[in-house]
Amino acid sequence: MINSDLTQKVNFILKIGSAFHRYGTNAPRLESALSNIAHSIGLEGSFFSTPTYLSIAIDYGEKQLTRNIRVSPGIVDLEKLSAVDKIADDVCSGDMEIEEAMRALERIKVSVSRYNETITTIAFGLTSMSLAVIFGGSFLEASFSFAVGSILGVQASLAQKVPKFFSVFEFVGAFTCTIAAYLIKFFYPHIHFQIVMMASLIVIIPGLSLTIAMVELAAQNLVSGTARFMGAIIDFFKISFGVMGGIQLGRFAFGDLAVDQTIPLPEYWLLPAIVIGSLAFTIIFKAKPKDFKWIFLSGLAAIFSIKLSSLVMSDVMSVFIAGVVVGAGSNIFARVFNRPAMIPLLPGIIFLVPGSIGFKGMNLIFETKYTQGLGIGFHMFVIAITIVAGLFLANVFVNPRRSL
Predict the structure, then answer these.
(1) Bridge pairing between strands 63-70 and 53-60
(2) What is the model's pTM?
């Protein structure tokens, strides 16, 4: 006979596991967190997570209690993730009863994000603006990237409301942004088309998903890592197909574009670009406003680690050093403030943008330039694996002493 106390504890583990998954926790961290929570409340069991599935199995006596649920791929919400993590800590330390914790989890689930659609749309534009500068664009490319990125932000808000549109969002977003960039290039021939298009689409290019997939595979979470990896590849194809469709329509309507050209801004403009990008990531990842400073420091560490190490090392080794710096810094943040390392870690990884390389490779494949496309695609995987290696080494140097 299963007693009510055991049932309550199992239901709590399932509920908090669903919350961690919902707000963007990867499989290794989620499974480790659930194992620690279960142990702290007197249970032992096994846990299994994929992007669409969560299973827990709790041992009691010679029997086992199992719960399995279908979940949707998590959307990063750093503020809610931090709140759920605090609940887990309070339960583990005995400062909060399980029944009270379950009510708190429900309140978090139904709470409204502090950032409305208008602010989020602007954040899409600001992200594109900052990355246009980081990619070597001028004021003109940055301004146009803000406009095109904001168009993508409007579509992202629509995708959250209309389920049917959500499934084709990447394709439609890439198509419309490419058309907009093509029109801008047609009327302003001296701008750099690739920078405007790349910067405007970078928010939906799945470089972060690809890197997380590599982390999961390296941690032997093979099912979750493979599923997430294939999801990222499908997103690459959706975006690339949308871009190629937009380019073909643009050529049909306006003809071929002029040669790309631009005058990059001086290096000191990187600092304001990182400030703007960090502000945008604070909004897009739904972090607390007070966490802006940690996201900014993470972005600053990522960019300048690459810039400085590239003076004496290859590009790949520079990314590795940046991965170590961002990972170690995030772990120090987790140790000092007893909060999830993911708060500074995820934005820091975004600044390393391995997805933009894969996006170029996919475009070349669609143009039947298979050798070049596959070569660039392989380089993307090398960059992603390099980041993962840097993060793993950072965990050796600085143990975060917590699952998240």
Answers:
(1) antiparallel
(2) 0.89
